[in-house]
Amino acid sequence: MSYKILSINPGSTSTKVALYENETLVFSENIEHTAEELSPYEEVLDQLEFRSEAIQAILKKHGVVLSDLAAVVGRGGLLPNLHAGGYLVNPHMKEALLGGQASPHASNLGALLAYEIAEPLGIPSYIYDAVMADEFEEIAKITGLPDVQRQSMCHVLNMKAMSRKVAEKHGKRYEDMTLLVAHLGGGISIGIHKGGKIIDAIRDDAGPFSPERSGSIPLLYIVDMCYSGIYNRKEMIKRIRGMGGLKAHLGTADCRRIEKMIESGDERAKLLYEAQAYQVAKGIGELAPVVSGKVDYIILTGGVAYSKMMTDMIKERVEFIAPVEIMPGEDEMEALALGALRILRGEETAQEY
Ligand SMILES: Nc1ncnc2c1ncn2[C@@H]1O[C@H](COP(=O)(O)OP(=O)(O)O)[C@@H](O)[C@H]1O
Ligand SMILES: CCCC(=O)OP(=O)(O)O
After folding, report:
1. CB of 12 shorter than 6 A to ligand 2
2. What is the ipTM of this complex?
3. Distance from the CA of 280 to the center of ligand 2, in angstroms?
4. Looking at residue 105, what is its pLDDT?
């Protein structure tokens, strides 16, 4: 039986679209959205029609016959109370997303874009390994404020996809390994995986700074900034996500450019780049005691893991914990398609929201 599956991955500045026939990639496109194109939209949800039209244009360009599709799968976003694995996008999930129950993030559009294509065709739409899929152990959820619980939020889809590849490389099952995975992209998150679950993680706003995010800042500094009268809520969030990190310091989030600056003798860029590696290493170190240091492999993945300069600096500080596997880039489109394929083949069951 052959299944054609459309994967959709909305990021903050791009929408990736890929078509798979079973495990085989038919085509993959990355639609880049400029800041100018996105500027008319106050909220990320307002971009739905704009992104949907961009996807339709790609489907037309590749001559995709919509009635041939078996399912559409989108990146899952920041809805509360999600588990890992696949979910059927149903009207309840759609309403929750449109009703603002999810914290703002481009990934929330994944379910909506998938549903919009699939529903008129009478085929299922899914999300898979959503950003907020929560597998934390009870102890990891506790904070020092009784009314505040830590909730998992990390690059679940790519972390799990890369973990499965590392497990396969070593002839093991992901579920039988303990892996400490750092996703080094425009945002950075780190997760400790045990028994096939992310049992604790450091979010992009709670650990190392990254190419475009502030990472963790002492809480009282943030309280002061919020009440300074200088920034409104949206501006504060922009400082944390989008305009923080290396971009705030150096005017660019492009690590390839930053490495050129370093190579041409820019000492400030060198210190900042080293500080990013130092903070990633500290984040990895923070999670190792969760499993009493018994980690099989540390995995460095995401776009920045293409950089030998960066991965060498991190490796030097964390190799005492476990051997380091470098898995550069991301495999999110394939991970989405393979998740949907397992559901279509009856190897996994889609959950209902
Ligand atoms: N060869 C490379 N060397 C260093 N950094 C890279 C390289 N390729 C991509 N990057 C960096 O990876 C980051 C984007 O990571 P990626 O995982 O692709 O994106 P996102 O987090 O936006 O999905 C950017 O900071 C980019 O500069
Ligand atoms: C840590 C949450 C997931 C996330 O930030 O995704 P992007 O880096 O793709 O924005």
Report:
1. yes
2. 0.98
3. 16
4. 92
